[in-house]
Write a structure and sequence with these properties.
Elements lengths: L4 E4 L5 H12 L3 E6 L2 H13 L4 E5 L5 H13 L6 E4 L14 H29 L2 E6 L12 H21 L4 E8 L6 H9 L10 H4 L2 H9 L6 H12 L6 E4 L2 H11 L2 H12 L3 H5 L12
Parallel strand pairs: 1-2, 1-4, 2-3, 4-5, 5-6, 6-7
């Protein structure tokens, strides 16, 4: 196996942290970046204890100067990035009709514009070498949409489309582009989405009845979650394979979820998602009977 130099963004926790360690354990040289110095120090300590070729340092994907500093640091260390894993991102959960412009822009700044800023910083060197891999961590949420996740899903749909374009445009230069599409993974990601939702869980919200049960919904969804190792394996395959696939969906059962949601009539899927998310008249009318129009016969 050819050892590669890999840059992983958003490596302070969850999928990014697990993938950075997994790749380093497979013999690759890994630069692991993020914004939390304490978590980066913890990652570095674990890597050092195992004598892994991993260097953790700060990089903010929404800050051009921070990206350039990271690029210069890697260059001065004698390395050039062979594989870029664009993993940095977070999930904003909020009703689309209520989400603020500020929160919506912040979501896109990290998940979309940050991803492209990092990509633009490292593509020129890959193009000069005539080789490289760009792995964009999307989500099955880039193919299907759940209630209250519209802002997050919109960023992942954007990542899907941009990755498809990049795959076509960069192929003549020897650069492969692949999408990593995680399903429900047991990390702290879901819990963080509820944290971001806090500002919208007000008693006067027209969705108060449904949002009050967000914690229970997260707990219910997490029962279907799996260990992040399946995503790390997908990232490793996309990094090492002679011909990486265009898309890696993991765990495998997520394929069936996408398939059936596309196969079934939209009305059926909508009804199921509304019921699961508490978007029923009974829930929404609880304590706010004047917020909804009369029921349609």
């Amino acid at each position: 196996m050819v050892q590669r130099t890999v840059l992983v963004t958003g490596a302070t926790s969850g999928i990014g942290r697990h993938a950075a360690l997994h790749l380093a354990r497979r013999g690759h040289r890994v630069f692991a970046t993020g914004r939390n110095p304490g978590l980066l120090a913890s990652l570095q300590a674990e890597a050092d204890a195992e004598k892994l070729r991993l260097e953790a340092f700060e990089m903010d994907v929404t800050d051009t100067a921070s990206i350039e500093a990271a690029r210069a640091r890697i260059a001065t260390s004698g390395g050039s990035v062979d594989v870029l894993v664009n993993n940095a991102g977070y999930g904003l959960w909020a009703p689309m009709s209520e989400v603020t412009d500020a929160d919506l822009r912040k979501q896109f700044e990290t998940n979309v514009f940050g991803l492209m800023a990092v990509t633009r910083a490292f593509v020129p060197t890959m193009r000069e070498k005539g080789a490289g891999r760009i792995l964009n961590v999307s989500s099955v949420g880039g193919r299907i949409t759940f209630p209250f996740g519209g802002a997050y899903h919109a960023t992942k749909y954007a990542v899907e489309s941009m990755s498809d374009a990049l795959r076509l445009e960069l192929h003549p230069f020897g650069i492969d582009v692949a999408l990593i599409e995680p399903g429900m993974i047991n990390t702290n990601f879901a819990a963080q989405t509820v944290t971001h939702l806090a500002a919208y869980r007000t008693s006067d919200s027209p969705y108060a009845g449904a949002l009050a049960e967000a914690d229970a919904l997260v707990e219910k969804a997490e029962r279907f979650g799996v260990d992040p190792s399946c995503i790390s394996e997908a990232i490793a395959h996309a990094s090492e394979a002679r011909r990486p696939r265009a898309r890696y969906v993991a765990p495998l059962r997520s394929y069936f979820g996408i398939f059936f949601m596309k196969l079934l009539p939209t009305r059926w899927v909508d009804a199921a998602l509304r019921a699961f998310s508490g978007l029923t008249r009974a829930k929404l009318l609880s304590g706010r009977r004047s917020s909804l129009p009369p029921a349609v016969a």
